[in-house]
Design a protein that fits this description.
Layout: H1 2-17, H2 21-30, H3 34-56, H4 60-65, H5 67-97, H6 109-121, H7 124-133, H8 144-172, H9 174-177, H10 180-203
Helix pairs in contact: 1-8, 2-3, 2-6, 2-8, 2-10, 3-6, 3-7, 3-8, 5-10
């Protein structure tokens, strides 16, 4: 059981360390404040847990089997990513036009949480991945449903801690990153990356 748990946490670390839309959004929101960054993390991990529970009940198999359902989610996910990318580029422009030292309006807690949740739930790959990832670590003889839900909860909690380090690091670098020029470049980079990820998802067959 212990070796299985350690292997699971190791796999969770590799997954979290792989750059993706969630990482970009978390860093982007952390530039605003630690609160926005952490609430984005909580939203994202709520999505991770939801997909884990859905996988536990076998419902993601329907998504994998239904080409129409997958295609709809893929297009929705692409639209969400492009929307976040445009939002970041607009923010970069506002930062350029604002006076030096201007920080802009911080997102509300609900908006930050909702952004993280929406980005995760709109990603069909997250659903399919949960379905293929979690069953590998269910101990032999354990109740499948309870074990899957437990692993999904552990996965989400672990990633809260992992991504929390990102939020903490950006907060520590805030004096440098909050400078208008630096922040504008970071917003431009994050916006461009999100647009590219959205375009790639939309063009996938």
């Amino acid at each position: 059981m212990l070796s299985t748990l350690l292997a699971f946490l190791g796999a969770c670390t590799l997954i979290a360390a792989s750059p993706g839309p969630s990482t970009v959004l978390i860093i982007k929101q952390s530039l605003r404040s630690r609160r926005s960054g952490f609430l984005t993390v909580l939203g994202n991990e709520t999505g991770v847990f939801v997909w884990g529970v859905v996988a536990a009940f076998g419902l993601t198999a329907l998504l994998a089997a239904s080409e129409v359902a997958y295609e709809v989610m893929r297009i929705v996910g692409a639209v969400v990513l492009v929307g976040f990318g445009i939002q970041a580029l607009r923010q970069a422009r506002r930062t350029k036009e604002a006076p030096e030292g201007w920080e802009g309006a911080e997102k509300s807690g609900w908006a930050a949480y909702r952004g993280g949740l929406l980005l995760n739930l709109a990603n069909p790959k997250a659903a399919i991945f949960a379905m293929s990832f979690l069953p590998q670590f269910v101990p032999q003889g354990a109740p499948h449903l309870l074990a899957m839900v437990g692993l999904a909860a552990l996965w989400a909690v672990y990633e809260v801690g992992y991504y929390g380090l990102y939020v903490w690091f950006v907060g520590r670098m805030r004096a440098v990153l909050s400078r208008a020029g630096v922040r504008r470049r970071l917003e431009q980079v994050s916006g461009g990356v999100l647009l590219l990820l959205g375009a790639r998802l939309a063009l996938e067959s």
